[in-house]
Every structure is written in structure tokens, then in C-alpha cells.
Write a sequence for this structure.
């Protein structure tokens, strides 16, 4: 059976609540608009403002913490970016330093070339430094990034602003090998600048330079500059080689020797120049080794004695010199020869 | 969370939410709008406990909002109450465990709250001007409706819906309302 009794309205009912609360809201609005709510509002504001300030402070702090972590992330990213930038700048700096250094060297080269107008210099960046090769450790060569396409030919002198480096011993299309002065197979006709004594500067196994075949009996001093003499036509005249640091003079020797300190620092070779307008008389590689066939030199010395008190006699001595190995013309008098009676 | 605990915590939470809305929410602005924390809290409460409780929280929440805002006292309450009432109508028939219900409630609630509030503001100003009331000079509430809808209400609708999406898992952990509280 349907309950026809009307349920009494209560405050709990939604409609009643809505009406009451809506009226309350409207009343508040009206009170505010008429200004009657101002004291209440002021009191509420007074009460709530500290909370609001605190909340603002807390929010600020929380925001700062969040910002900090966000910043931390950004900082990491920024740091990575800056590190990358730093690396590139460092590389650029090094590159610029290299350019500066190269510029300095070129300036020196320019000065060097200006003082020697007869030389046409072609600069080369050393692309490799070979000390020895597969077969021997005694060779001292460098590889330069100039080759046949640049007009480089075998035998061309190679120099720096400091002086003579050596000569081109092998040429490929784009690179060349340079036989250094210090190589034991190298020999250069040289002259002592002050005393004008000639000799041959050759490399030694130890890497020093030795000036040999200096006339005996003539004095020269330590510190005397050594230049190319131009004799033989292998090198232009007047290129600095080094300076005398020690004199080896023995009366029993055929000639004097001088230990020469090269003006070029061979351990720090960076930029060299090939003198391309100089045509050497001899091509180095081919001339370094003469005909490997055994050669024999026969000399006959006949002494005739005529003395009326004595019998007339004749003594004949024949000496045969046989070359048993390749003769290096670049290093005269160092090639072993065998004497056969 | 304990269901009863949440019920009794609602009023303090509304105060805190109002406080946060006048402080922290500014920092959470996206596209020029900040989240309606009080509205979302009231909607959640309504979805859990029904519109009868929700209406009260809407009133309280509105008042706390108006305390910290420059709007007319009671205006937010009325707007929230309208939103809660409509949401409450659906709450009786739809299960809040359907993810679309809280999202739809957030969208509808934001829209109703916004539109109602704009209308209330407009009405308050015109009434104040008409009656030449004491504070009529300060009652500059007349907002252009469409721009307000476009640049405030709709972005807020999107923002609140997104927040509700985040809150929904928590909301779903609440058990269905016991009849004791509803009674």
C-alpha cells in the first residue's frame, strides 16, 4: 500500500539546503555590496592573511625547490653544453695556436727567403717523420706532403728558416721522402764561413754531424758557422748547416774533422721548404749507390835505381785495390776497401 | 583512504585548497589559467558523498574562495552550488568508477561553474549599478562572455579535466558511500 503521508521537509533535504545556502549566498552578496560586510571581511582578512602569507612563503619555498631541481637539470644540460663549447673552443685555441706558430715559421721563412732571393721555396708541412725503415734503423728520413704534382724532384734541397734539412730522396705523387743531413748516408759539401775551409759534412750513426776533409794545418775555431759550399752542385751555396762545436785535429791524420751542431732542430721539424728552382747535378738515390758490381783498381809502381857504384836495379810493386761493396760517393773515404797485394 | 575521514576532512581541505588556490595555483598557471582546486575537491566530494553533502561543501568552498578573492562574497558559492547540483543529478545514476564520469563531471562542473560565475558577476554589477549601492563603484565584474569562455573557461575546463584524470585513481580507491553518511 502506498504511503500517502507527506514526509516533512528537513534541512537535510537537498532542495532545502540549496535554497538556504543560495539565500545565504545572496545575502552575503547584498551585505557586501551595501558595505555591511566590510568589518567582517576585514576581520576574516586579518585572520587569514598570516595563513596566506605563510602559504605564499611555503609555495615560494616549494617553487624554489622545484626550480632548483629544474635548474639542476638545466644546469646539467647547460654544463654539458658549456663543456662541449669549451672543448670546441679549446680545439679552436689549439688550432689557432698552431696557425700562429705556423705563421711565425712562415714569417721566418719569408725573412729567410728574402735574404736569399735566388731561391724559390715551396713550403711543405711535414706529414711524417721516419727514423729508419723496415730494413734499417739507421736511416733518418722525413716525409713531406709535397710530391711530384707539386713539382718536387729527387735531389731537391729541403730547408727550414734555420738552415739545411736535407734533400729529397724519393718522390711520389703527393709526398716525398727527405734524407736528413743527420742520416749516416748523407754528405754535403760545406765551407767554414770565416776560415773559408772546405769540407764534407756527413751524418753519423749517432746523429751528429761531422765535417770531414778539412785541410790539415789550417786553424779554425769552435763556433764557426758551417754553410753549404755549393761545390758538386747538389746544394745551393750559403745555406746554413750548423756551427763547429768541437775540433778533431790529429797530426797523423790526413785531414781535420769538426763536430758540427746543426742549426736545424731535427727533433722538432714541423715546416720545411723544398727549393724547387734548384736542379741538383746528381740525383741522390741513384748516386747514393754506385754500380754494385765489384770493381778492381790496379796500380803499378816501379822504382828504378841507377847507381854507377852499384848494380843497376829495378823494383816493381803492384797493388790491386778491389771494391767489394757499393761505394757511396756521398760519403767518400768511408767506404771499406780491401787491399790485395 | 578512510571514507569517513575524508568526509570530515573535506572542510579543512577546502580551506587549504582555497589558500593554495590563492597562492600556489598561480605557479601552476598554464596558458594563463590556474587549476580550480576547490572546484575539483567539491566535485570529488560530490561524486563520493552525493550532492547533499556536496552542496554544503560548495557553499563553504565558495566562501573560502571569495575570502581570498576580490569577487563578491557568495558568488563562488552560488556558482559551485549550481555545478554540484547538476553533477549530483548524474551521480545518482552513473557509477563514478567509470573513468568518464569523473572526467565528465570535471568538464561539466568547470563549465557550469565558470558560466554561472560570469553570469553572477555580471548580475552583481548591473544590480549594484542599478541600485546605486555603496560599493557599486568597486563592483566592476562585467566580463565579456565569449572571450571569457574562450580564454578562461575552456582552457580551465581542459586543465581541470587533466587534473581530474590524475586524481581519478585516488578517487576510485574510495569505497561506495555507506548509507549511514548519506542518511
Amino acid at each position: 500500500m502506498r504511503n500517502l503521508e507527506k514526509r516533512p521537509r528537513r534541512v537535510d533535504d537537498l532542495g532545502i539546503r540549496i535554497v538556504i545556502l543560495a539565500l545565504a549566498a545572496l545575502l552575503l552578496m547584498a551585505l557586501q555590496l551595501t558595505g555591511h560586510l566590510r568589518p567582517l571581511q576585514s576581520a576574516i582578512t586579518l585572520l587569514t592573511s598570516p595563513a596566506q602569507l605563510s602559504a605564499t612563503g611555503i609555495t615560494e619555498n616549494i617553487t624554489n625547490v622545484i626550480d632548483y631541481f629544474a635548474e639542476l637539470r638545466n644546469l646539467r644540460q647547460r654544463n654539458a653544453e658549456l663543456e662541449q663549447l669549451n672543448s670546441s673552443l679549446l680545439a679552436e685555441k689549439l688550432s689557432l695556436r698552431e696557425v700562429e706558430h705556423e705563421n711565425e715559421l712562415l714569417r721566418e721563412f719569408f725573412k729567410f727567403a728574402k735574404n736569399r732571393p735566388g731561391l724559390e721555396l715551396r713550403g711543405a708541412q711535414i706529414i711524417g717523420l721516419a727514423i729508419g725503415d723496415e730494413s734499417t734503423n739507421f736511416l733518418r728520413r722525413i716525409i713531406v706532403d709535397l710530391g711530384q704534382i707539386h713539382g718536387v724532384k729527387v735531389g731537391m734541397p729541403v730547408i727550414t728558416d734555420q738552415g739545411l734539412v736535407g734533400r729529397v730522396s724519393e718522390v711520389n705523387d703527393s709526398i716525398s721522402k727527405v734524407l736528413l743531413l743527420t742520416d749516416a748516408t748523407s754528405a754535403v759539401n760545406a765551407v767554414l764561413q770565416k776560415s773559408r775551409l772546405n769540407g764534407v759534412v756527413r751524418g753519423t750513426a749517432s746523429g751528429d754531424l761531422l765535417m770531414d776533409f778539412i785541410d790539415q794545418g789550417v786553424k779554425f775555431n769552435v763556433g764557426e758557422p758551417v754553410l753549404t759550399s755549393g761545390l758538386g752542385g747538389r746544394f745551393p751555396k750559403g745555406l746554413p748547416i750548423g756551427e763547429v762545436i768541437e775540433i778533431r785535429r790529429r797530426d797523423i791524420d790526413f785531414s781535420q774533422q769538426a763536430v758540427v751542431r746543426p742549426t736545424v732542430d731535427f727533433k722538432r721539424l714541423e715546416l720545411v721548404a723544398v727549393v724547387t728552382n734548384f736542379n741538383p747535378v746528381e740525383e741522390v738515390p741513384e748516386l747514393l749507390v754506385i754500380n754494385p758490381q765489384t770493381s778492381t783498381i790496379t796500380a803499378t809502381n816501379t822504382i828504378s835505381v841507377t847507381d854507377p857504384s852499384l848494380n843497376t836495379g829495378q823494383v816493381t810493386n803492384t797493388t790491386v785495390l778491389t771494391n767489394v761493396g757499393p761505394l757511396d760517393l756521398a760519403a767518400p773515404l768511408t767506404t771499406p776497401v780491401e787491399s790485395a797485394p | 583512504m578512510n571514507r569517513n575521514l575524508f568526509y570530515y576532512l573535506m572542510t579543512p581541505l577546502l580551506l587549504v585548497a582555497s589558500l593554495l588556490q590563492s597562492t600556489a595555483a598561480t605557479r601552476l598557471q598554464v596558458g594563463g589559467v590556474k587549476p580550480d582546486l576547490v572546484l575539483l575537491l567539491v566535485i570529488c566530494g560530490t561524486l563520493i558523498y552525493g550532492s547533499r553533502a556536496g552542496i554544503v561543501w560548495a557553499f563553504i568552498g565558495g566562501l573560502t574562495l571569495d575570502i581570498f578573492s576580490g569577487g563578491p562574497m557568495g558568488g563562488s558559492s552560488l556558482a559551485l552550488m549550481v555545478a554540484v547540483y547538476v553533477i549530483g543529478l548524474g551521480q545518482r545514476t552513473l557509477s563514478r568508477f567509470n573513468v568518464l564520469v569523473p572526467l565528465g563531471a570535471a568538464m561539466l562542473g568547470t563549465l557550469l561553474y565558470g558560466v554561472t560565475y560570469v553570469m553572477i558577476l555580471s548580475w552583481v554589477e548591473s544590480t549594484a549599478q542599478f541600485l546605486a549601492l555603496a560599493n557599486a563603484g568597486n563592483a566592476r565584474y562585467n566580463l565579456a562572455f565569449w572571450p571569457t569562455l574562450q580564454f578562461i573557461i575552456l582552457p580551465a575546463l581542459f586543465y581541470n579535466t587533466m587534473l581530474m584524470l590524475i586524481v581519478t585513481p585516488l578517487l576510485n580507491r574510495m569505497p561506495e558511500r555507506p548509507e549511514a553518511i548519506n542518511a
Summary: Residues 16 and 92 of chain B are 28 Å apart (CA to CA).
